[in-house]
Amino acid sequence: MDTTRKRVLITGANGMLGSAFAHHLSEKGYTVHAMDHAALDVTNRDAVLTEQDWKPDWIIHCAGIVNADFCEENRDVCFQNHVDGTKHVIELAKVTRAKLFYPQSFLIFDGEENPITEETTPHPLSVYGEAKWEAEQIVCKELPDALVIRMGGFFGGCERDKNFVGKFARHLKKSIDEGIQTIPVSDRVWQPTYTKDLAENCTLLLENKKNGIYHMASHGEASFFELAAAMVEMFGIGNKISITKMPANEYKEKAKRPLRAIMENKRLQEEGLDRMRPWRETLEEYLQNEYFQNLFHEVA
Question: Is Metal-binding one of the keywords UniProt gives this record (predicted)?
Answer without folding.
Answer: no
